[in-house]
Amino acid sequence: MEPELDPQEMTADAPDTLFDAPPMAEQERMVEAVLFASKEPVTVRELMTRMPKGCDALQAIEHLRSRYEGRGVNVVQVGPAWAIRTASDLAYMMQKETVETRKLSRAAIETLAIIAYHQPITRAEIEEIRGVSVSRGTVDQLLELDWIRLGRRKMTPGRPVTFVVTPTFLDHFGLESARDLPGIKELRGAGLLENRPPPGLFEGGNSDDEHEDNEQSELFEDVDPAQSAHKAD
Asked: Does 40 share its domain with 131?
């Protein structure tokens, strides 16, 4: 609760009037009007400066709060001030959910496909397959969507980080693992591959041979998960 204030101190700044303080019911209406119209929570002192001399704003608030209990809106204390707010159990009705469709650029689609079929793969290897450089914006977009993440460092000069697809990517496309990615014939059969894919996209992709994966693992070392994505440049 708000600390008690001296009634004389609270009324010191209130406008003088020749009339007696209005009934408590009328004081409640005054407080209700101010709280309803105010964009920000209002303190008791601020209420007293607006109400006739002799009013008890704190008592009016307590009466008003009791009157609003169980209603669609409540009188609530916000720090040292008071406000009218939507009942907490009805807050969900005030939320508006929208679905925003974000179309990936061709560069992002090609980069994502190369990572999916060649993971773990470095930025330089992606650029070699695409034939063009990969911008930071493209990688950042895929990282923001949580479709790719940093993989293991490759044990080559400079120890560059690699990229791999995430469970979010697999879930979005209904895949149990990257091994379930469709091949070039399946993509063409489904009409999803109208143009010729980047050179080398499907070459050297994920293999079902486990011993090959074990041999390749010696070429990599793990990356700290907390490492910033910007270090992938």
From this structure: no
